[in-house]
Each structure stands twice: as C-alpha cells, then as structure tokens.
Design a protein that fits this description.
InterPro entries: RNA_pol_sigma-70-like, RNA_pol_sigma-70_dom, RNA_pol_sigma70_ECF_CS, RNA_pol_sigma70_r2, RNA_pol_sigma70_r4_t2, RNA_pol_sigma_r2, RNA_pol_sigma_r3/r4-like, WH-like_DNA-bd_sf. The chain is mainly alpha-helical. The chain is 65% helix and 2% strand. The radius of gyration is 20 Å and the shape is elongated. Residues 1-19 have low confidence and may be disordered.
Length: 202
C-alpha cells in the first residue's frame, strides 16, 4: 500500500498520490518559487489553448500572439489562483477572454440567419444531423459551417463539444449564466444545421 503522502517540499502542503505530477502539484511548486515547473503546464496546455484561440480569431499569427499573451497572464496571476475551479477551467477562461476581447476590436462579416428560419428547425432534425459527423467529409463541412459563426458562438460550441466542458465550467469560463449558455448552445446548433443544409443546395 502506497503511503498517503508521497512528497513534501518546504512551503507546500503534503500531496497525495493522486495529486503527484498533476496541475495541483506543479501549481504549488510554482507558487513556492520553483518557476521552472511552469514549463510543464506550458507543455500540457500550449497546444489546446492555441488551437482554441486559432478557431476564434482565424489567424495563425494572431493566435500565436494571443496564446503567448494568455500564458503571460497565467504566469503573472498564478499566485492568486485559489483553486475555486479547476486549473483547466481557469486557463480556458483567460484564453477565452483574451481571444474574445481581441475579436471585439475588429469588424467581422458573418452570415445572418432569420429568426423564423431557426424557429422552423426541430431539435430532432438537429440531433439526427449531428449524429452523422463521423466521416471526414462531414467533419470538413462542419468546419466550414463553424467558420461562419460569430467568434463568441464558435468559442462556446467548441468549448462544449470539442473541449467537453460542462455547463458549470462554461459559466466560469464565459461569465454567462447557465440558462443563457443553454439557450445559446441550442440556437448555435440550429444555426449550424441551417448552414450545413445550405451547403447541400450549393
């Protein structure tokens, strides 16, 4: 049987076996002065954070700059991280706010869809369509449709389905209420349905 406490460093609380080499482990070491451990968090999160930001801003160069800005903010504010939410949720919140703040400064063209069109789409139709996204062609079509969403809509749908964040985590990341998030996700799914169906007639 493994001992309950497997490591102890000055200034840190004892860590259990389950916490060893997790985000909690590295965060505590960094907060205790071992800043070299930040490289471990950077290695774990740099690719998914950059990928999310790229999906939002749609510019490789800008995504790289914003990802770097995100990690600078994370490092600068890590001492204030209290663990009220998971570190993953916390870092995605910073990335989300950084990306959305950037796109709000610009003017983007997007395809407007009439409200009546969305109202005429049934949930069954949406569910059936999204249950058929296994082939490469279907995934590519979905990628094209995602590009036509507003940046904040794209971020929300990607966080929920791609990053598999819960509604509670999305509340923490976006600052929106749970009910607002559910309404937005429902609406975005319908928009994607309309966009995908539109491709069938092109």
């Amino acid at each position: 049987m493994l001992p309950q406490v497997v490591t102890y460093l000055p200034g840190l609380r004892p860590l259990s076996t389950m916490e060893l080499y997790t985000d909690t482990y590295y965060i505590q070491r960094i907060q205790a002065g071992d800043v070299a451990c930040f490289a471990c968090l950077l290695d774990k999160y740099s690719r998914p954070i950059h990928s999310l930001i790229l999906k939002v801003v749609r510019s490789q160069e800008e995504a790289e700059e914003l990802a770097q800005d995100t990690f600078m903010k994370v490092f600068k504010n890590l001492a204030s991280f209290k663990g009220d939410c998971s570190f993953s949720t916390w870092i995605y919140r910073i990335a989300y706010n950084t990306a959305i703040s950037s796109v709000r400064k610009k003017r983007y063209e997007f395809l407007a869809i009439e409200e009546t069109t969305l109202e005429n789409v049934s949930e069954e139709e949406v569910t059936n369509l999204f249950g058929q996204t296994e082939s490469t062609e279907q995934v590519q079509r979905l990628e094209v449709a995602l590009e036509q969403l507003l940046p904040d809509e794209r971020a929300l749908i990607l966080l929920f389905y791609w990053k598999e964040k819960t509604i509670e985590e999305l509340v923490s990341i976006t600052g929106l209420t749970a009910s607002n998030i559910k309404v937005k996700l429902h609406r975005i799914r319908k928009k994607l349905f309309v966009l995908l169906k539109g491709m069938d007639h092109e």
